[in-house]
Design brief:
heterodimer, A: 150 residues, alpha+beta, OB fold (Dihydrolipoamide Acetyltransferase, E2P), 2 domains, disordered C terminus, B: alpha+beta, six-stranded antiparallel beta sheet, 11 strands, globular
């Protein structure tokens, strides 16, 4: 009788432990999910405030400005429809160039400027982040009907 | 001409792989052993064909044959010859050929040792590996032919991606593939055992060295990848939880569980069913890794082509393999449940617990890696899962694993007693706890708790490993005799476990103690960081074989003494016009000094990243120790003596 009760206690503890671990994992998972928003989504207010998200688009040519004497930069991202200003302090990746598609992680400031914690440009000169490619394709698709009606 | 010969050899290899796959089926269905006799020779001939085809592709690269589209896309006449060879596996088509070649190589090695196996099992093992080979050769011939001529041929090639022009990248892919593909051997054995319905303890002993070898290769391959990312990507990160890294890490985790589970099956006859499942799982995850990396669903330096046809082909291979083998397992697996019994407190229990923990860790990493892909495919939004998730979950899983690892070293097989176990371990546990508390006390900053826990666990693992070794030596009449008589696997086990501990310590310490600074610096500027002073001395332009570069000269000082002179570069590769950061690194066991150039600012000023990477080498040192332990265990003479065991029944029946 006693061994059986002991076994039940052990099994019960295991079940509770597994449940706790699962809950912890799923909570951590949920907290670390980062959603991607295009610049149009961001301007339209679909992106969350006070929470990290990813933004992507093309770096507008001629928009890159450096703060003299420091490492802060400011540039404009666009999906060819709406544009968002991005501010970043630090070293930009090797393949960051104007006209190139990039993705940035960070938060949207009150003034509508995106404060990037990290800027990502991938390891290939012909590369377009798929998120950016999709956002551009969407812009193009939305633009098509209006052109036809004109 | 040589390229056409290469293509012909590939086709021939496909034919031989078909013989290798179908002859065992026919032979066993008809009960005619003569069919089985052709299986081994076909496998060896297939390896010969692929080796020759691979040599043909190397020849095309060395002679700059830009009429081949693959060569034209990935090489250049100015590329140094060593990188022209490594460019062979620098992109999709060639790396697939390497995959197939390595699979054929493993099959060749297996075929040389099947005489000691029952003929039917040996034939099915080689047949299963042949089937995998058929799938990959078809994939290559239909969607990714490396010998395709592209006319008109360009005057010169588009060059190898500069990131891949690096000594570490010459050996990283072959070694990683040796690991990935090596898991095909235990997989084939599992399938053979399921098909033939026999799973004797001799089975586990036969598979163990193969699983160990594959695991050791994969360990080194992953460590090389991490080391390369550290010095070549120019930001000093050594693990990013990037989907491609995860793709290689998941089979490693299950492979680790497999190696241990096989040991229990070999020694105690338990865990048979679980071992078979792990063998299937480890190879399936290797295939999943190939799919993730090669299909273009992921975005990284590894994803060469975004060709949906290719992705569907690999997905098909994956589906058939995983679905088929799991269905077979469900059908035949229950017949092999019986095994050695053990009580809830025993070495078996701790091994089983860690096996399960490794499997759960694999599942959580798979969740973080695959969930974004699934959501994207279903058009439910684009998300990514941040590194903090992986760090937290991985840490949560590894802590109990480390505790159980140590307890398992002390626990007896079959039956033990908690009170007595505690008596044997409390001294070591106390010492480890003190080490952890001291660490947490000495270290400042937010990471002190995790560093303390990590060091306590590392100390616990090392102490229990050494104590386990000591227990096997003590009580012998002659100490030196005992040292020599102990099987190599005992030393391998201790070395590998100590390596795990060193890696844990490295990860925790480098996370807690490393410092990193971005600064704007011009020649003459100085920067103080972590007891060191970094002086930007001069800047000059240099010209390499296929690139131009700006090179900075830095001196590093500590307490008025110069400790290093570092030359970080920013290169611009001519053909692709692609910039690349070459970090200046002083490697040391206690911590690297790391400088990389960012971008040129106004005048002679640059943005510069300067880091002190505390104990980062311990991460790779630990991995190398783990692999070394695996290799040492391979040397165990039991594997050579007793591989003859399964053949005994045949000899008896023949007498």
């Amino acid at each position: 009788m006693i061994p059986r009760r002991k076994r039940m206690v052990v099994i019960g503890l295991l079940v509770v432990g597994m449940g706790l671990a699962t809950a912890l994992i799923l909570q951590a998972f949920n907290q670390n999910l980062m959603y991607f928003y295009s610049t149009s989504d961001t301007v339209a207010g679909k992106a969350p405030s006070g929470r990290d998200f990813r933004i992507g688009g093309l770096v507008v040519k001629g928009s890159l400005q450096r703060e003299p004497g420091g490492l802060s930069v400011r540039f404009t991202l666009t999906d060819l429809h709406q544009a968002v200003d991005v501010r970043y302090t630090g070293i930009l990746p090797d393949l960051f160039r104007e006209g190139q598609g990039i993705v940035a992680n960070g938060q949207l400031g009150r003034d509508g400027v995106f404060i990037a914690r990290e800027v990502l440009a991938k390891h290939d000169e012909n590369y377009m982040p798929p998120e950016v490619a999709a956002a551009l394709a969407l812009t193009k698709a939305n633009a098509q009907p209006s052109r036809e009606t004109r | 001409m040589i390229a056409e010969l290469g293509l012909f050899l590939l086709t021939l290899a496909l034919g031989l792989a078909l013989v290798q796959t179908l002859f065992p089926v026919v032979g066993l269905a008809r009960g005619q052993d003569i069919w089985l006799a052709y299986v081994g020779p076909a496998a060896r001939a297939q390896f010969g064909c692929l080796l020759a085809a691979f040599a043909a592709l190397i020849h095309a690269f060395l002679t700059n044959d830009f009429t081949l589209a693959y060569v034209a896309h990935n090489s250049n006449s100015a590329l140094p010859w060593l990188y022209r060879i490594s460019a062979v596996w620098g992109a999709h088509e060639g790396s697939l050929l390497l995959w197939a070649l390595i699979l054929a190589g493993w099959t060749w090695a297996v075929s040389l040792r099947t005489e000691r196996l029952p003929a039917d099992i040996g034939a099915v093992v080689i047949g299963v590996m042949g089937a995998v080979s058929v799938a990959f050769l078809l994939f290559m011939l239909f969607t990714s032919n490396p010998f395709l001529r592209g006319l008109p041929a360009p005057a010169d090639g588009a060059d190898l991606n500069p990131l891949l022009q690096d000594p570490g990248l010459i050996i990283h892919p072959p070694i990683l593939y040796m690991g990935y593909v090596g898991f095909a051997v235990p997989f084939a054995f599992a399938i053979a055992a399921l098909v033939r319905g026999r799973l004797t303890p001799g089975w586990a002993r036969w598979v163990r060295p193969w699983a160990l070898a594959a695991w050791a290769f994969l360990t080194v391959g992953i460590a090389l990848g991490s080391w390369w990312a550290y010095y070549e990507l120019g930001w000093g990160g050594w693990w990013f939880w990037d989907p491609v890294e995860n793709a290689s890490f998941m089979p490693w985790l299950l492979g680790t569980a497999l190696v241990h589970s096989l040991a229990v099956t070999d020694k105690r006859g338990s865990f048979k069913s679980w071992t078979v499942l792990l063998a299937i799982g480890a190879f399936s995850l290797s295939l999943l890794g190939t799919f993730l990396v090669r299909s273009g669903v992921l975005t990284s330096v590894h994803a060469f082509a975004t060709d949906p046809e290719r992705g569907i082909f690999v997905l098909l291979i994956l589906g058939v393999t995983v679905g088929g083998s799991l269905a077979l397992y469900a059908w035949r697996g229950p017949s092999m449940l019986a095994g050695g019994r053990y009580s809830p407190v025993s070495r078996e229990t701790f091994l089983l617990a860690n096996s399960l923990l490794l499997a759960v860790t694999t599942a959580t990493i798979a969740l973080g890696t695959l969930y974004p892909l699934v959501l994207d495919t279903l058009n439910l939004g684009k998300i990514s899962v941040g590194p903090p998730y992986f760090n937290l979950v991985f840490g949560l899983m590894m802590a109990p694993l480390a505790v159980a690892l140590g307890l398992g070293q002390f626990a007896h097989w079959r039956e033990d007693n908690l009170a007595r176990l505690w008596q044997r371990t409390r001294l070591v546990a106390g010492a480890a706890l003190v080490l952890g508390l001291v660490t947490a006390g000495v270290i400042d900053g937010p990471q002190r708790v995790s560093a303390g826990v990590g060091l306590a666990l590392a100390g616990w693992i090392i102490a229990t490993s050494l104590r386990g070794l000591w227990a096997r030596l003590a009580g012998r009449a002659s100490w030196w005799g005992a040292v020599a008589a102990l099987p190599a696997s005992a030393y391998g086990q201790s070395l590998a476990h100590s390596g795990f501990a060193v890696a844990i310590a490295g990860v925790c310490l480098t996370t807690a103690l490393s410092v990193d600074r971005h600064a704007r610096m011009a020649p003459g500027d100085r920067l103080a960081l972590a007891a060191y002073e970094f002086r930007f001395e001069a800047l000059r332009d240099i010209i390499g074989p296929n690139y131009k570069a700006s090179e900075a000269r830095f001196t590093v000082w500590r307490a008025g003494q110069q400790v290093a002179e570092l030359y970080p570069q920013k290169r611009l590769y001519n053909v692709r016009a692609m910039p690349l950061t070459e970090a200046g690194i002083l490697p040391r066991l206690a911590g690297d000094l790391y400088i990389s150039l960012g971008e040129p600012l106004e005048g002679q000023a640059w943005s510069v990243r300067i880091s002190y990477k505390a104990y980062v080498r311990w991460v790779w040192l630990g991995a190398l120790m783990m692999a070394g332990g695996g290799v040492l265990a391979l040397r165990d003479r039991r594997y050579r003596q007793t591989v003859a065991l399964p053949a005994q029944p045949r000899a008896a029946s023949g007498a």
